[in-house]
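Office hours follow-up: a student asked to see two folded examples consecutively, so here they are.
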Amino acid sequence: MTKNEDKYTSLTIAVPIDYEDVFSHFYYADNKSSAIISKTFLPSYQTILIFNFGEKAILNSKNSTEVAIDRCFVLGPVKQAFDYSLPPNAQILVANFKDDGFYRFFGHAAIAEHFPINPDNLVDKNCFTALWTTLNKIEDIHHRVNFILDFCQPYLRDRSIIAERLANFDDENLNPIKSVASQQNQTERNIQLNHKKLLGYTSKEANRYQRFLKAIAFIQDIASTSTKIDWFGIVNQCGYYDQSQLIHDFKHYLHISPTKYLKFQQDICMAKADKPHFVFLQF
């Protein structure tokens, strides 16, 4: 471990069971080193609310534009990897909304996919500025998380039965849109529209991402026991047409090739293939 790494702290914080259908987890990072720490957010298909304390974190957009993050911002659903940097004395606390959790709180789902926005722009009052001010006075990170959870509780809408069934659908042999439409006695088109409205992405996007996560899981399993990857086997087992389609997905989601991912995969804590997850990569 280097001197700078020794002064960089990061941890994942679980949420109480009462909030597990709203948040997947919280993530905290604190850079007390003398160097700028650069990392990459990997795609999660979750919408994230980031609170920035201390020095401003820097987010790098797809077109290489740098955005300084002051206090708090919303981004997502996160469908592609993007880079960010923490200068010395910067802290971030990330709330990871799960499934329709963001919709239940804000009444929107896909509102900041391509560019971060101030969450106060989504509500009538500057309540997130006030929330940040309070959080900035709380030193213990777990107390900060608990304060956020208490803050959110009064504003959460009841979960719709359609959102619940779409989010919890786990039968790989059935089409979720057709199945939920049949269960709810609604048209497939209406369920498709609700999927986008409530979750922030389409069922087609979700299926593509799940296929990619399945490929990631296979690659990690094989890499842990062998030095040689059977790429054609990965293609066949994960439902890709050919190797070029697999490569295309890697470049779409991570902006790197499968072989480059394999080189760095030991540094990545990637999700299991059945659930999206918020993960970090440092080159």
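And the second, which I mentioned at the end of office hours:
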Amino acid sequence: MNVYRKVAFVGGGAMAEAIIQGVLAKGFVHSEQIWVTNKENRQRLERLHNVYHVNCSMDKQEVIEHSDVIILSVKPKDVATAIENIRDYITESQIVVSVLAGVSTEYISEQLERKCPVIRAMPNTSATIGYSATAIAAGKYAGRDHMDQVGDLFQTIGTTTIVKEDDLHAITGLSGSGPAYIYYFVEAMEEAAAEAGLQKDIAKQLIIQTLVGAAEMLKSSNEKPAVLRQRITSPGGTTQAGLDTLERYKYQEALMACIKQAAARSVELGSPYQGKLKNPQS
């Protein structure tokens, strides 16, 4: 059930746009209910207004006042300045949602200097088409009702999973950055198809349907991925030849290292923003 009358975005980058596009497509809120501000990029705000017909303003008070939820979507390095610019207009009845990688709810609460509920969310850019995998974690002063409200918001742009905040670094490396790994994989498939002489449009259609089919199999089947893989891998066959090559190039090891490194980068980015209770040196 939608309880939002006004949704404010502080920061209008790619993630904010993905969420805006997704919630508008689902009709969760209307364009006139969405307000966006940023630090100084007026051209970006003009684009969001022209494309999505949302309200855009450099007046932080106008954007923040009377908003039911405030979504922080700036770069982590800009979070302190962003909160300082809006702090005076925030009340304890508003929900603050952060989609910033690594920045703890404890830090955000300290910067706000108010007892308003803070919730962290880690969606991905598939929110644009309603297929985000979003993890949300409760911070200080966030109760069940607040989590339900934020969950309803992100449920409109995909699936929502409630997690512990400490798990968000790993989730950032897994599903937050995950679409980029898939696109990179598809780039390689397209390159291989081109070298094999396949027409670009034919290759694209086959690749996309292969991905969709495999995803649906994983979703609808109770079998483990290893079992599904083994079922289409005949000894000495074509699939076995391909998998042997992937093993030779340490494909699984590379992918695991990729996710671990992305998670480690989330920790690194967030290390200055862990809050005094978790990081006495900050």
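Two things to take away from it. The radius of gyration is 21 Å. Strands lie at 7-10, 34-37, 55-56, 69-72, 95-98, 118-122, 132-138, 158-162.
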